[in-house]
C-alpha cells in the first residue's frame, strides 16, 4: 500500500466522515469503516481491472518495463480518483439521511 492510500485511510476519510456522522447522530466509527472499505474496494477493483490490460499489452504489443510502469502509474491515479469519488458519494449519502432515520 502506498503512502497516499495510507494517508487517505487514516487521516482524510475519518476527517471527512466523522463530523457528518456526529451531526446526523450516527455512529462515526461504523461510517468511517464503511468509508475505508469503500476506498479499499474501489482500489481493488481498479487493480483487478488493470491486470488483464497489462497482460494483454505484454503479450500482444510487447510492452517494456517502462511502459508498464507508466501504465501502473496511470492506473494508480485513476484508482485514487475513483476511490475518492466513491467516498464522497458515501459522505453525500450520509448527509442526505435525516438524523432520526432508521436503516433500511
What does this entry look like structurally?
With 104 residues, the protein is mostly helical. The protein has one domain. Helix 1 packs antiparallel against helix 2. The protein has helices at residues 3-23, 28-61, 65-96. The longest helix is centred in the middle third of the chain and has 34 residues, at 28-61.
Q: Supply the number of structural domains.
A: 1
Strand percentage, roughly?
Answer: under 5%
Count of individual helical segments:
3
Total number of strands: 0
Choose one word for the global shape.
Answer: elongated
Largest sheet: none
Please mark out the parts with pLDDT under 50 across 5 or more consecutive residues, or reply none: none
Helical percentage: over 70%
The ordered string of helix (H) and strand (E) elements is: HHH
What is the typical, i.e. mean, pLDDT?
Answer: 89
Structural class by helix and strand composition: mainly alpha
What is the terminal-to-terminal distance? Answer: 34 Å
State Rg: 17 Å
Quick synopsis:
The protein is mainly α and 104 residues long. The chain contains three helices and no strands. The protein is elongated and about 60 Å long.
Give the helices and strands, then pairings.
Blueprint: H1 3-23, H2 28-61, H3 65-96
Main attributes of the structure:
104 residues, single chain, 3 helices
